[in-house]
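User: structure tokens for this one?
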Amino acid sequence: MLLIPTPKVMKTVKIMLLLCVCVLSVRLNAQEKEKLDSLLTVLKSMPSDTAKVNLYGQICRAYTIDLGDFELANTYLDSVKILSNRLRYENGRIHSFFLGSTTFCVGRLFEMTVKHLKISSLCPY
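Assistant:
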């Protein structure tokens, strides 16, 4: 015997699913903000070396992917590029172009996305 749910039951199920999605979304966003706060705290006490370049990259990625904040992500992307150049850290420079492609894609700047992907693909590794 096949049970067919009534429209009232279907409406209740849809509302419950929507509520679950909303609750999970808020919880995940809070966890990502906590993670980001932790990274920013560590950043304050780090010396300017390759580890700091990598941390800038993690912060850039968190703002880009986890929080969707293109402006702040771009700020930390610039920090990755500047410090990598100052340290002559080639892996950091290449990684900055890959991060840039992701950041610009989220910001819907597709020409810059393609440009950064092309540069990052020139990696000799």
